[in-house]
Amino acid sequence: MDPAWRQRGRGRGQPQGQASRPQRERAAAPAAESPKTPSAASSQSKFEEIRKSNQAAAQRLVQSQYSSSSDDDVDDIVDDGGKVEGKDGKRGKILASTLTTYTDQTGGDVTDLDREQTQYLSDVWSCAGCFCLFHIPCIQKWAKDSVFLLSSVTDEDFGKKDHPWPCPKCRYEYSPSQTPSRYVCYCGKVQDPSLDPWLLPHSCGLVCDRALNPACGHHCLLLCHPGPCPPCPKMVSVSCMCSKAMPVPRRCSNKPWSCQKTCGKTLPCKQHACNSSCHSGVCEPCPRVSVQRCVCGQEEAERQCASPVWHCQQPCGRPLSCGNHTCERMCHSGLCGACPRSGNRACPCGKSKSSLPCTEDVPTCGDTCDKVMECGLHTCSMRCHRGACETCRQEVEKQCRCGKYTRLMPCHKEYLCESKCPNTRGCSRHQCRRKCCSGNCPPCDQSCGRSLGCRNHKCPSVCHQGSCYPCPETVDVKCVCESTSLTVPCGRERSTKPPRCKQLSPPSCHHPSRETHRCHPGPCPPCRQACLLALKRCQHPCPQPCHDQVMVKTSDRVSVSGPWEQSSEPAFVRKALPCPPCLVPIPTACLGEHEVSPVPCHRREPFSCKRVCGRTLTCGNHSCTKDCHRVTATTNKLQAGPECVVCEEGCVNPRPPGCPHPCLLACHPGSCPPCQQMTRQRCHCKISLTFRSAEDETKADLGSCKNQCPKQLSCGHHCKDLCHPGHCGDKCSHRVKLKCPCKRIKKVCFYLSVALCL
């Protein structure tokens, strides 16, 4: 049978038994002898030119790609009427072209390349799960080793069960009978497909014709191809899933559709209808609750309407047909059946039978039991008895398991000597050391424990030879949003790219106006918008760029123990940073209310301007020398408060004239009190000594000796006042006789009025 690409030249709908092209040309030869029109002749000449050019191009292509192929190969490909070379000849020439470099070195000897030619270059097998290609010898060894590993770990009777083996890449499981044993094309119709440069490798060139998946009754229309078959492209007329709507034309691969009407089918409870919209498959269980009886009818309970059949924990208790016993079966449906003690019943040893009422027990027959005991060699010698037979106690000569010693001992006991097996177990690493070994040493029971190639798990099998098998575990590689996953063999998650996800990427910041995009690997680009979140303390919007996802260097660094170790680079993590402090300027008065300055919002509490307080202290003479501070208990901006300093200076008021003593009080408001200190001083006339207070208001009286002032006036008379301070003055009160200038009149008058008299 010719490949489909050769059959296409026969025309559409031509049966395979129709004549070939050379036969049609011979049959049309007489008709070709008829005279041709000029247009037909020109078309024929153009066709011949194009055909010759295509042949030449095909020859050049084959010669450049396959240097060892002969011109007969090109003729075989181009000219269908020529002699077709055999399958083995064409395959041999193509394989020989692949191995030309090796055969040139060995003088054409290909003895050592038989395995490479027949197995590794041509015989392959395609997995039905992942459609990956494997060499048939490799996959056969993989299947055998996988079954052996699983049997050695799980089977107590090693090798007695048929365990499945997985695909090395996708872990799709196959039964042992599905282990590939022959080389077939992709579609499985042709065994040992021939190599053709115009076809896909390992393809037979025929129509695939495999049943499509999911099964729809149609078959694949492509040529024999690797990988899964495409969805069915045919159009079919189908109704909705609940069969209420009219049929509509749809693709066969996408037939199910919903009319969105209520299903309305009766649920298994036979009481309610399905309220779901048009759906496929079986309706969901009834969600309602009802009171239902158990199977035996003894109890009632409120249960889900979807599960009406249930069993209570009470025995049936209904009387049996014998009338003497009741049914001891747990809650069940149907008839209880006949009494288990009715009819012919055998004695315990089974040699005699008797028909007795169900109320009586069958007696023992008195004969020998003769049942085969557990040893399988001897029979029970006791009389007919109830219960199990005792262990066999006959003395027999037994040989130990290793065959070195024999001993006479009871039949039910096993004889094992004390010698230990010196052979090496199958792992070639440990000795058997089992007591009385039969020579068939069991597999090594020690755990392998070596790290597998995945670097995540350790070998779970027992100690074995050679390399450990690949890790049988699988890992889910998820996208960033973890809604889409891809299952890969353990260890490949490091090199496998995350699967493509159609879900929208979760928002990475709080801005609703940011453009939405699909889930993608790697971090989202940073947001360039301003944060604008209301700050907790002041409710001002944050003016900084968005800081919900910021790369921050971690401080966890491993200490270096020596100069031969390199320090690990710091790691970066993506985290949300808190909003920075608010920097909006707020006019704020200082503590002493000296000035109003703009202060950042996060520090807008009253501050100290560092000026001198300057408030007048309670003394009224000095001011507070502290730096600007808070003042309470006063509304006057100039008056000092309890927080101001206390004046510790002495009194600075000027002393009254003549008082040499300082004020003994601390600095105080108002005038100083009178000086109370007594001093010894001379009187005003400097004749007598007196004691007086320096600040006494009557110091003038106290400083007087009460004698007449001895001072003389300017007129020459003595001062007639008592001792007094200061100058005596010019008011003389002494009487004198005066005459007028002519000396005619003579008067007596005071000295002060002399001028008047004159």
Automatic annotation (TrEMBL):
Q: Where is the composition biased (Basic and acidic residues)?
A: 80-89
The UniProt entry, under CDD domains, shows: NF-X1-zinc-finger (cd06008), RING-CH-C4HC3_NFXL1 (cd16697)
TM spans (from-to): none
Give all residue intervals belonging to the NF-X1-type domain. 216-234, 269-288, 322-341, 375-394, 427-446, 454-473, 509-529, 538-584, 619-649, 659-677, 715-742
Q: Where is the composition biased (Low complexity)?
A: 28-43
Task: Please give an example of a GO cellular component term from this record.
Answer: nucleus
Biased region (Polar residues) positions are 53-66
Q: Does the keyword Zinc-finger apply?
A: yes
Please note every region of biased composition (Acidic residues). 70-79
Per UniProt, which keywords does this protein have? Metal-binding, Repeat, Zinc, Zinc-finger
Residue ranges for the region (Disordered) are 1-89
Q: Which SMART domains match?
A: ZnF_NFX
Give the source's domain of life in one word: Eukaryota
User: Which InterPro entries does the UniProt record give?
Assistant: NFX1_fam, Znf_NFX1
Could you state a single Gene Ontology molecular function term? DNA-binding transcription factor activity, RNA polymerase II-specific
Report the sequence similarity comment from the record: Belongs to the NFX1 family.
Name of the featured protein: NF-X1-type domain-containing protein
Q: Which gene encodes it?
A: NFXL1
